[in-house]
Amino acid sequence: MLLNPHYKTLCAPNLVYRSTLDVAAPGDWDEAAPLANLQVPQFSVFARSDGLDDVNILGVIDRTRRVGAIALSQHNMTTAAQWRVRLYSDDAHAEEVYDSGLIDVWPAIYSSLDLAWTDPNFWSGKMLEEDRALYPSKSVHICAGGNIFARSFRIDIVDDDNADGAIDLGGLLLAEAWQPGWNASFGDSRGLIVNTRVARAGGGTKYYDVQQAEREVAFDYAHLSESEKNRMNRLRVELGIHGELLYLPNLLPGVTQYLEGFVGTFKQVDAITHPYLNNYATSVAIVEKI
Question: How far is it, in rounded angstroms, from Cα 263 to Cα 289?
Answer without folding.
Answer: 6
